[in-house]
Structure formats: C-alpha cells, structure tokens
Amino acid sequence: MTASKRPRYNLGDEQTFATIYGKGTTMVAHRKRFTLMPLIALSTLSLAVSIPTLASGHLYAASPQRYETVTVKPGDDLWTLAAARTASGSDVQETIDRVMADNHLETATLQPGQHLRIPI
Predict the structure, then answer these.
(1) Where in the sequence is the domain holding 112, given as residue range(s)?
(2) Is residue 114 part of a domain?
(3) Confidence band of 105 (pLDDT split at 50, 70, 90)
(4) Could you tell me if 78 and 110 are in contact, meaning their C-beta atoms sit under 8 angstroms apart?
C-alpha cells in the first residue's frame, strides 16, 4: 500500500466507548464493574449473626488439680497407695482409675523405684 491508498478515519465516525457500524447503527460496549458491595453485605450479615451467638456463651475453667509424687517401694501396690490418699467417703477405684490415666499405666502392676503422680 502506498501512502495515498491508506484508509482515512474521520473522527466523526467514532464516538467515545461506541463504534458506528454503517449508518444509524450504534453498538455500545457495556462493561460490568466489580463492586465490593455484595461482599460487604455478606460480611455484615455474618457478623450480625455470629457475634451475639459467640458473646452469649460462657466458658468455665476446671479448677487446677494438685498432685503428689510418690516413689514406689517394694511391696507397694496401686490400691494401698490410692486408698491412703483418697478422702473418706470417696471411691478408691475412681482414684486408681485417675492414677492409671494420669501416669499412662496399662496395668496395675508397679515396679519399685517407679514415680507416680497421685491426685490429692
């Protein structure tokens, strides 16, 4: 193409954000804009529901448990150690179960020199 045969564009043929195709036909390009409004509305609704729910709950902490560390002597068994440290009127078997759970014991067999944590 030579310089004289280049198509010429008339500024009147095009408009901002639109192109004229032939006479009288205008095509306007619409772009959807991303907005944060749906996200803000959803967040606000979530907070409106969850904050009262979370604020109404009460947390109760367990009282700290005190332990006595005992070294097993020859002839000691779990029943006598637990019975000596169980309050009167309380169940010795419950104390034995707690001693076994707290010390990760699978059986009630004790070895001399073994250290046990017994709740008091």
Answers:
(1) 67-119
(2) yes
(3) very high
(4) yes
